[in-house]
Each structure stands twice: as structure tokens, then as C-alpha cells.
Amino acid sequence: MNNTDIEVARPAAAHERIVALDALRVIAAFIVLVQHFRLVFELHWPDWLRKGVFDSKAAVMLFFVLSGYVLALSLGGKAPSFTAYFKFGVRRVFRLYPVYWMALLLALVVLWSVQQHGAGQVTGLPAWFLDGKGMQWEQWFLQSTLIAPGMKSDFALPTVWTLMTEAKVSMIFPLLAWAILRSPGWLAGALVAGLVLGSAWLDQHVVGTAAFLGMFALGTLLCRVPSAVWNRLNQAAWWGLLLLGFGLYAAISWRYVMPSIWLGYYLCGLGSLIFIAGTIHWPLMRTALTRLQKLLRVDLSYSIYILHYPILVALKKLCGPVIQSSPCLAFILAFGVTVGLGLLLHFTIEKPAIQLGRHLTRSRPTSFV
């Protein structure tokens, strides 16, 4: 088989795969919300509730690896072209920006109120805007772009750095995916290994965003693994693989005592890869996550991830002393408001925007006269 015959490995149950992956995303977003709740309300939790699989940075690595897999599937290993690149870019803009702009507007209102009246100051997870003076409109404009030079990742939304990474990686992802999916296996593996092993060098000599390319590359490489490989694994093998995945995933919590923090990040990335593979190919795991997502009905992972911070700050400002005395009530209220607003934006903005992006980039049959 030559390299032009390579096809992206697609699971047989494509619909279940998508639903199960939605559930995996929601779980990761929920972990981020929980950990940011702890920081905003300055709660002291035991280590086991803050580290390992509950580490919010680990959830972000899972997002990156999963994005690499899903985006590569959507591209299908097609050769880069201006048309394909343009369509990919349009779909990513309509996917990322509309809900993000709503979250940014909410953050502007909440943080401005905190800046003006003082109540609700956040010391555990601060926003750089609160340390400045005035509205700082230039930086708010830069925030709206996600990719403009001079944009500060800690200005208004602590989670925005991940969107900045996604947006910047999207600019070269079609080329990266094509190189991994269409190259001979040894060359694709070498390319991914180079990005992973060279992450520290890329961080120091290029830009921090480039150091995360290996995360997306890991997800893309997963597309090349034939389903037959996973089908050979029995239940015992899957359970063993899952335990290995937990161990690798949890390693991120010890990144600061490792020779390089990138070692911790990419061990977590490998653990994420195992979770994703199990979600797609292990019937037991896929079925459980599919049932969970069918209960949820709607994929709110993105809304939960990007909206929760301004909501937490607003709750701390409006009823901080009362909520501080009852963390359980505070969390239920924060989660309920986040999900409620997420549902509203999903049906009024997110879903219509995604559908519009698909409509604008849909291939139309050529008519001949």
C-alpha cells in the first residue's frame, strides 16, 4: 500500500463515538469548573481532590488531544488546498467565537463591577484587568481576536489561553493533519515523536503555543490506528490499559518536580489518548459514556468551560459571605446558573452558529449547462 492509499481509521459506530466523546468532554469541563470554584471561593481541599485525575490542567490536555482526533477526522486526510483551508477556518471560527464573545461580554460586565465596587475580589484565580485602571479597551479588543499579538491570556478569562492555543493551532492544523495522515507510518510516527520530544525546545525558542502541537498530533495519529487493532483487546487488556491511562494522566500533577514540565504534560497527553481510544473502541466504556450523554441530551462542555469563571465571580460579589458559609449550596447554585446559561446560549447562539458554518462550507454540486 502506498501512502496515497492510506485512509483515516473510522470506528464502525460513528454516531456512538461522537456521543461518547461529548460525554468525555463534559466530564473534563466539569472538573475544570470544580477546581476553579475551589480557587475563586478560596476553599482548602485535600490533595487527592486537587491532583491526579482531578487536576484541571489534565482536563485541558485531554481537550487538546481530543481536538486533534476530531479535527483530523473532519479533514479526512485530504490534501491541503486553499478551498479546504478556507472552509476549515470558517467552521472553526463559527465553532469557537460566538459563545466565546458572549462569555467575554459577561466577563466585561462582571469584572468592571468588581473593579468599581470592590466586592468580589478574586485572589485565588485573579484576572489581570482588576489590577489595572479604567476599562483598558484596547486589551478587550485584543481579547476578542484570540490570536492578536499583545493579547494577555490572564486578562479576563483564565480559560482563554486554551482557546488561544486552539485558534492558533487551527491556522496550521490542516497541514499538520495531512502530513501525519498521508505520510508513511514511520514518518508520521517520527513527526509526532519530534513534536512531543521537542516541546521544551519549541517553548523556549519558538513560542509556547508550538509546544502544544504534539498534543494535537497525538490525537491525529490515533486516526491512523485501524479499528481491528483495538478489536483484538479483551476485557482484561482494556482494564489494564485504562489503569495505565489513569497513571499517565495523573502524572501531570507532578510536572513541577520532573526534569521538565513538558514531560508531565505529555505523559498526561498519552493518558488522554488511552481514554479517547477506550471511549471510541471499548464497548463497555463507549456504552457507559453514550448513556451518560443521552441523559444530558446536549453537549454543554464548551459553554461550561468558557462561561463558568465570570459566573463564579458574580456569585462571589453578589452573595459572597452567605455562600462562603455553605460551599455545597454555592456549588449547586454556580453549576445550575452555568448550565442554565449554557443551555440558553447553546440553542440561541452556539448551535445556529455551527450549523451556519457548515452551511457556508458545504460542497455544492456543480451544474452543467
Account of the 3D structure:
With 369 residues, the protein is mainly α. It has one domain. Helices cover 71% and strands 0% of the residues. It has 16 helices and no strands. The protein has helices spanning 14-40, 56-75, 82-117, 137-145, 160-170, 173-182, 185-197, 199-205, 208-211, 213-222, 227-231, 235-250, 261-281, 283-296, 301-324, 327-361. Helix 6 (173-182) packs across helix 7 (185-197) and helix 6 crosses helix 10. It starts with 13 loop residues before the first helix and ends in an 8-residue tail after the last helix. Residues 1-6, 12-17 and 365-369 have low confidence and may be disordered.
Draw up the topology in text.
Blueprint: H1 14-40, H2 56-75, H3 82-117, H4 137-145, H5 160-170, H6 173-182, H7 185-197, H8 199-205, H9 208-211, H10 213-222, H11 227-231, H12 235-250, H13 261-281, H14 283-296, H15 301-324, H16 327-361
Helix pairs in contact: 1-2, 1-13, 1-14, 1-15, 2-6, 2-10, 2-13, 3-15, 3-16, 6-7, 6-10, 7-10, 10-13, 12-13, 13-14, 15-16
